[in-house]
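User: Hi! I have a protein structure encoded as tokens and I'd like to know what sequence might fold into it. I'm fairly new to this, so please keep things simple.
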């Protein structure tokens, strides 16, 4: 059983999400719904260690205490709780702040319920997960804040590939990941099996010395 909490100032969104999760997955238990970060922290403080949620789905724009500040405080005080930001498209400029605050996932509120459940399961199993369209936004943001005096991106990519000994196919797959494409889509475009892509991904992670897609994207883009 995965114990979760929802923090969102829109009661209807929170209620709909609760109903969808309970209908789709009988191994997800909702402990509470809070309508802002401050109330969430008060509820957490009132719980004993065994009753704590394992995952919190956190909105960003809320009164009293927004999702970024709440994520920072919860991550510092309760590091065992994983937080997934549950955002609308207009708030995706906050993605870097959310990751820096300690969020382990970042979802678009328009995601299908099966993708939300998969993200919850992945994060609970120690992975990070973000929606493909948000991954694309993350790349755009990082590229915009890159120093203009640095070498052109293509030259940096070549240097990075040489440093970590990435193969031509690994560089190709990494570029697809940066574009926000799923493993299944990459496999279809390259005409290979899904498990072949997973093997390449593991090799890329090992060479870049990262543990997940978010770190790989950030690592490959910043260098």
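Assistant: Happy to help. Inverse folding works backwards from shape to sequence: for each of the 223 positions I chose a residue that suits the local structure. Here it is:
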């Amino acid at each position: 059983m995965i114990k979760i909490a929802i923090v969102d100032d829109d009661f209807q969104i929170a209620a709909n999400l609760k109903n969808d999760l309970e209908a789709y997955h009988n191994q997800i238990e909702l402990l509470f719904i809070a309508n802002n970060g401050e109330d969430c922290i008060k509820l957490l403080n009132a719980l004993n260690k065994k009753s704590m949620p394992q995952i919190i789905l956190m909105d960003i724009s809320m009164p009293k205490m927004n999702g970024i500040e709440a994520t920072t405080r919860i991550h510092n005080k309760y590091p065992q709780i994983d937080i997934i930001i549950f955002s609308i498209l207009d708030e995706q400029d906050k993605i870097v702040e959310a990751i820096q605050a300690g969020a382990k996932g970042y979802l678009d509120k328009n995601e299908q319920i099966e993708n939300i459940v998969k993200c919850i399961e992945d994060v609970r199993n120690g992975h990070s997960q973000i929606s493909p369209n948000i991954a694309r936004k993350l790349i755009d943001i990082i590229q915009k804040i890159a120093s203009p005096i640095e070498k052109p991106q293509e030259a940096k990519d070549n240097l990075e590939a040489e440093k970590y000994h990435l193969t031509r196919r690994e560089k190709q797959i990494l570029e697809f990941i940066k574009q926000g494409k799923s493993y299944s889509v990459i496999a279809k475009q390259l005409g290979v099996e899904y498990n072949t892509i997973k093997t390449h991904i593991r090799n890329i992670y090992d060479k870049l010395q990262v543990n997940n897609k978010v770190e790989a994207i950030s690592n490959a883009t910043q260098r």
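A useful reference point when you look it over: The first helix runs from residue 11 to 24. Feel free to ask if any position seems puzzling.
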